[in-house]
Amino acid sequence: MKLEHVAHIESTIKIKDHPYIGGAWTPNYDEVNATDMEVIGEIPADIDGVYLRNTENQVHEAIGRYHPFDGDGMIHMISFADGKAEYRNRFVRTKGFVAEQEAGRSLWAGLMEHPTSSTRPGWGAQEWLKDSSSTDVIVHAGKVLSTFYQCGDGYRLDPYTLEQFGTESWVPLDGISSHARLDEQTGELLFFNYSKHAPFMHYGVVGADNRLRHYVPIPLPGPRLPHDMAFTENYAILNDLPVFWDEEMLERDIHAVRLHKDMPSRFAVIPRLGQPEDIRWFEADPTYVLHWLNAWEEGDEVVLDGYFQEHPVPGHYPDAPPGFERMMAYLDQSLLMPRLHRWRFNIRTGETREERLDDQTLEFGTINQRHAGRSYRYGYSAVPKKGWFLFTGFTKHDVETGDSWTIDLGKNRYGSEAGFAPRVGGTAEDDGYLVSFVTDLEEDRSEAILIDASDIEGGPVCRIILPHRICSGTHASWAHGEDIRKARERLA
Q1: Mean pLDDT of 351-365
Q2: Reading across the β-sheet that carries 301-309, which strands appear in turn?
Q3: Who contacts 469 (Cβ-Cβ below 8 Å, separation ≥6)?
Q4: Quick one: which of 425, 346, 371, 359 has its CA closest to 395?
Q5: Cis bond leading into 199, ω under 30°?
Q6: Does residue 125 register a pLDDT over 80?
Q7: Which of 34, 155, 298, 455 has the greatest number of CB atoms lying within 10 Å of its CB?
Q8: Residues 6+ apart with CB under 8 A from 416
Q9: 289: helix, coil or strand?
Q10: Is 352 in a helix, a strand, or coil?
Q11: pTM, whole model, 2 decimals?
């Protein structure tokens, strides 16, 4: 292995007995570049692009109780070309990260504390939080865009070198939510944000040239907590779900989430470049959905697949350390019970139809992104570990036949959200590789794995041993090398 140590970030963390500071969630503080890594198997020559994962890494002792989503964003990158791989990782140099490095301590309280605990104003929908840019990562217009789940600035990096370019210039005053959606067919980026002031939500489109093309309000009855959106060829789909802050407690600046049982789930279907008066609202059974898998148009219907939570407000986790019962409950997918689900919105009649696609507990799904916004056949969901925010394997669904296949990663091995890397020259929808970072607690190391997406039960075709064990985290994505090169040429 050829290894270059780029930087070591000094930590002041002293947290003891925290369920999300040790084990697979042990933070990283070293930034490295690595090539010629040990490979078990052989790296295929027909994979070209970049897999990126965002992770949360707490650097300084927390102000009060620490929630894992408070940690500073760190991007891990592995690139593939010509049968070779290269790995890099970098902290995202957010405004908050830089300020706390200068101060040598935490300046912002996190999700589990009252806003008055922060020593400085924050960003986004919860104005006392640090925008750690630690939630999602996507490549648009040839550059990485990392985002924060409570709405923030959006930070740009080079997808291969992780060179940093600061905040994105087109981001509106209310920021962007964690999940912007890329239409690979047009190069457009669709995004939304939300806030505690009217109209409470906005929706926008950024062109392939990285210029803001469209930005309109999506009026809601009050503050909401949407997390994700979806799109089709002609529409964007946003949501108003009945899980949001308690109104009376919010008046006291207490951000307590509850299920409003008597309210339906509502979906706003708006033409991609539409105005507020063009929105068609649809109602459905009450739930909360963290992530959508895909959406498309079928005759008069807009069809949406996602993960319907059976118990979106699970209460307290019984085996948690004192003070962490609520946090651990909301991180435990086995308590939330998300199920792969389908909604059909009839644009002509206004009718909603729903159906369950699978009864397994699954989340964090991905598809061949060439089919995003279009009809598709295969989805790949992460299998959660009971009691923890960790993934033990992946399930592939054939949404046409209802068949499914699952791969288990092995004892004490935990993967990241998979990216789908189409095989160079491939034509079938599942002709490609699932890419994931796996943390192996038995071997005390991390590795990148490639799984043949057409035969996931066959196991990894290769395993690339990384130079250090990486911290677990939230989201990941794949970007095609050809797309990155074309975007750079277009914007040069």
Answers
A1: 97
A2: 292-298, 301-309, 338-346, 352-356
A3: 26, 28, 439, 444, 445, 446
A4: 359
A5: yes
A6: no
A7: 155
A8: 53, 391, 436, 437, 438, 472, 473, 476
A9: coil
A10: strand
A11: 0.97
